Amino acid sequence: MDPSTTTRPTLLVVDGHSLAFRAFYALPVDNFSTEDGQATNAVYGFLTMLSQVIETEKPDRVGIAFDVKGGTFRNELLAQYKGTREAAPEELLSQLPLIQQALTALGVRWIEKTGYEGDDVIATLATMGERDGCRVLVLSGDRDAFQLIDDDVTVLYPGYHFKDLKHMDPAAVEAKYHVTPRQYPDLAALRGETSDNIPGVPGVGDGFAAKWINQYGSLDAIIEHADEIGGKKGEALRENLDQVRLNRRVNTLVRDLDLGVTIDDLGYGHADADLTERLFGELQFGERTRTKLLASFNTATDASGRQEESSIPAIVEPLVDTLTDAASLSMWIEQYCPPADATGDGPDRSLDVIAEYDRQGMQCADAVRRSWTLYVDGDAKPGHAAARMAAIMAGAHAVVFDPADPRYHDTLRALLDTRAGSMSVHGFKESLHMLTAAGLRCPSVLFDTNLAGYLIDPDFQGGSLEECAAHFLDIHIDGHAEGPSQGTLGFEDDDQDEDPAQRCIDHAAVVAALARRLAPEIERREQYPLLRDIELPTSRVLFHMERIGASVDRARLDELHAQFADESARMEAIAERAAGRSLNLQSPKQLGVVLFEEMGLTPTKKTRKGSYTTNAAALQMLYATSEEGSKANEFLGALLRHRETNKLKQIVETLIDAIDPKDGRIHTTFTQTVTATGRLSSVDPNLQNIPNRNAAGREIRSGFVPGDGFVDLLSADYSQVELRIMADLSGDEALIEAFRSGADFHRYVASLVFGVPVDEVTPDERGRVKAMSYGLAYGLSTYGLSKQLGISNGEATTLRDRYFETFGKVHDYLESLVANARRTGYTETIFGRRRYFPDLNSPNRQRRDAAERGALNAPIQGSAADIMKIAMIRADRALRDAKLVSRVVLQIHDELVVELAAGEVEEATALVKDAMEHAVDLAVPLDVSTGVGVDWQRAAH
DNA sequence: CGGGTCACGTA
DNA sequence: CGTACGTGACCCGC
Q: In this structure, is residue A782 part of a structural domain?
């Protein structure tokens, strides 16, 4: 690979008809038309889709190709050619001139050529662009465009969702069709193209066509050897030779038309504001749509203002060195990458002595300044992880290479083994996924800009490198650090007209700049120990959990799905019968009509937007008050049942869809930088909200099972962690004693609060105290408490007063949390995780109250999250140290699920329990209860 | 198609 | 008018 520092302009060529078709069929025409009946769905869709592509690809030149009415030379060859396409509905055809007018107004060039198709215009533009040294992107849903693909031309081919455009390069074509882009028209000629009404050889699809092409080299050669091909398919081929020859002539795109434009004419960004406004007015586009479109097509015009905003001053544009072989990489590393700091004891420090943990080794800014940066480009999704390219930046130098290239492996292994301790990355967990896909291991890193950014501002949403760069490099961090001049003006980040290698290098440079910016801030806040000893090791554990995935019993899930689907359908039928008509039970809007208009029921509550709520609580209320045996009663009963089972059906469905066919397991992604409190979250799918509260939903847990080679699942969870944290942090003797006594906690507390002996506490009293205890950490109001317990506000107030009389220090502690947060602006967990609450001083009472509740909750929920992270690190290490194969597979905030191997049940259970119980030393014991079973449900306890 | 809203699952 | 999340369905856009 020869990374080049020269950047090239990008030309975007768009298949106008293909995009218009796509837009037309994606958007319901009913929703988009002007008052006088002109359809606008294709116009709207066309422009929004195009603006999306322009915003992501940021091309320098744009040309839109259109077909011209009337025939082309192809019709003379093939009478039925595009017979299907001529049948385009009038509603679409009438919009094409509008699209072209809009493009003109927006300053985007569109081109057509009489007697030729848009495809020929595209082919010509792409060829011209290539000749002028452009990187060419062709946006088209027409596979004929694949023949244009080469090293300089990429086709953006829309997938099921328009937004996931597939970047079809030569490798992608070969992977999908097993022929080169140049051979693709041969393949298409054999196969035919149904959407263009072109028949191929009957019975021959992509597979056979590719087989023949690879066997004989080309279509010509296949035709030449047609007699040698046996079987039914050979026969079919011989019978259709003329058709195939014709197909091949028709699908060859013309690349040398005289279009009367040059590539330089295809600049854009100078929209005619008046013309646009007038046209959009006629189309009755809303204000928001207008400004959005105008802005995205006008970026170049107001570049003076905008581009400065997105330039990143802290970035050093590196000198790129060229690699020729492993030896040159080795020498480069020797020269530029510093070895790990010998004095530090590495990121994975022991957490065994967490009790004496005193946040040592807080310095990181100096080390980060001397560190080197690795950026890996690829896919970090567990199950499909892949590494495409990697760049290392050290000082002002950079190299780029293919990490999966075996020539570099020994060198890279040595590098990571010995010097990862002086390496910065953006996303350690993601890097591990990609490096592993490339066959590399990585022991530890010095710094992670994603995790660091999260610790600095956990409310900032957006873990992508771009978002972090915008947030932390563009904007000063809470008024601190006047940003010592980085010396260089840097490059503009909106320069996307660069090859992947260059982009990889640029990203590495951004990570390096981010690391230099964030490390001093982390150090100033004394958060490096939190990053190094908790977040980074947690990333590693999560990486393993994601990679392993959770094993499920497909047959069991299928069975549950059928069960829920059946019940759901039955309830739907009953509800519709009672309603006297068919309706969509999943539409709150339709439900509102039936309930509150047709049946005349009295609505209880409104939603924010003014419609009447149909949530379960409201329906339950209506159900309870409706007359037994009435239509409404029958309807509501069925609706409630439908809600429940249909929800369960959906949950099971998403689980089934998430099963990785390669291993039959579900690989969730645990996001580590999302929640404002420090908890993890689980996405794609979310395995942290599998039903557990009622029997029917809990059944779903029986679908989670030990995988091959494992015999049981262990479920280990903390009892009342948050309350125990409150006991410790408040220092309230009564509450501490309540936990130390080992008695039934809520019963014990109730006896104190109500002043009765423990064995005389009624279930009702216990329940009230339990609700009160849990409500505390949420900032529960007496109003909320009364509502939840169904008691009067007075009774709730009395309960609260008695509670705080009994546990006075808890009260003081909770008050102090808010008071301190108001003073400092933030709250802090046991391990120094911060969360900022600017709204504590808001003049808006609602916002202020919400901030107060957040400030109450964040340190408690956050400390619990810290503790669980430590527990996970310790559990993972304990299992490894004991050389067990049992492994942690899931975390659900206060619970770990472990896959147990035969013969390890007792030992692994004891190790995990111990790891959790001794994650931290509090004034109260941490109680962990465990259960073992052949599925997750049976492992419950 | 993409974003907002509603409803609802978890700790 | 307790905290923290993620997902799926519907509906709208003009």
A: yes
pLDDT tens digits, residue range A754-800?
999 999 999 999 999 999 999 999 999 999 999 889 899 999 999 99
CA of A24 to C1' of B2 (A): 15
Residue A567 shares a structural domain with residue A601: yes
Q: In what order do the strands lie in the sheet containing A659-660? A: A550-551, A665-666, A659-660
A651 CA, C6 C1': Å apart: 12
pLDDT at position A880, please?
98
Compute the Cα dihedral for A511, A515, A517, A518 and give only its sign. positive
Q: Which of A742, A754, A684, A764 is nearest to A925 (CA)?
A: A742
CATH of the domain at A743: 1.10.150.20
pLDDT, position A172? 87
Same domain, yes or no, for A64 and A162?
yes
Q: Which nucleotide is nearest to A607 (CA to C1')?
A: B6
* Range(s) of the domain holding residue A261: 10-170+253-265
Helix (H) or strand (E) segment spanning residue A734:
helix A733-740
Report the alpha-carbon distance of residue A904 to residue A881 in Å, rounded. 13
| Phi, psi torsion values for A671, nearest 5 degrees | -85, 135
> Model confidence at A488, in pLDDT bands (50, 70, 90)?
very low
With a CB cutoff of 8 Å and minimum separation 6, the contacts of A819 are: none
pLDDT at A350: 56
What percent of chain A is modeled with pLDDT above 70? 92
| CA atoms of A745 and A810, how far apart (whole Å) | 16
**Mean pLDDT score of chain A, rounded to an integer?**
90
Which of the nucleotides in strand B have any atom less than 7 Å away from a protein CB atom? 1-2, 5-11
Residues A366 and A394 in one domain: yes
A933 CB closer than 7 A to any strand C atom: no
Q: For residues A572 and A646, give the distance between their C-alpha atoms in angstroms, rounded to a whole number.
A: 10
Summarize pLDDT for A840-898 with one digit per residue, the tens: 999 999 999 999 999 999 999 999 999 999 999 999 999 999 999 999 999 999 999 99
Task: Render the burial of A716-728: b for 16+ CB within 10 Å, e for the rest.
Answer: bbbebbbbbbbbb
Distance CA A687, CA A892 (A): 8
DSSP class of residue A472? I
Q: Is residue A672 part of a domain?
A: no
Question: Is residue A158 assigned to a domain?
Answer: yes
Number of H helices, E strands in chain A: 39, 25
Q: Which amino acid is at A552?
A: V
User: What is the amino acid identity at position A319?
Assistant: L
CATH number at residue A36: 3.40.50.1010
CA–CA distance, A508 with A503 (Å, rounded to integer)? 9
Q: What is the pLDDT of residues A329-365, one digit of tens each?
A: 999 999 999 888 654 444 455 555 444 455 577 899 9
Task: Please give the pLDDT value at position A604.
Answer: 82
Task: Give a yes or no: residue A48 inside a domain.
Answer: yes
Q: A332 with A395, same domain?
A: yes
Closest nt to A835 (CA→C1')? C4
Spatial distance from the CA of A424 to the C1' of C8 (Å): 38
Over the stretch A360-379, which tens digit does the pLDDT of each residue have? Answer: 778 999 999 999 999 999 99
Structure tokens at A838: 């600017």
CA-to-CA dists, residue A12 to A104, A152, A153, A165, angstroms: 16, 12, 10, 14
d(CA A741, CA A678): 30
Total structural domains within chain A: 4
- Same domain? For A751 and A610 the reply is no
Q: What is the Cα–Cα distance from A639 to A568, expressed in whole angstroms?
A: 9
Give the pLDDT mean for A651-678: 96
Mark which of A843, A860, A877 sits at the end of a domain: A860
Q: Is the CB of A463 under 7 A from strand C?
A: no
Query: The whole model's pTM is what?
Result: 0.81
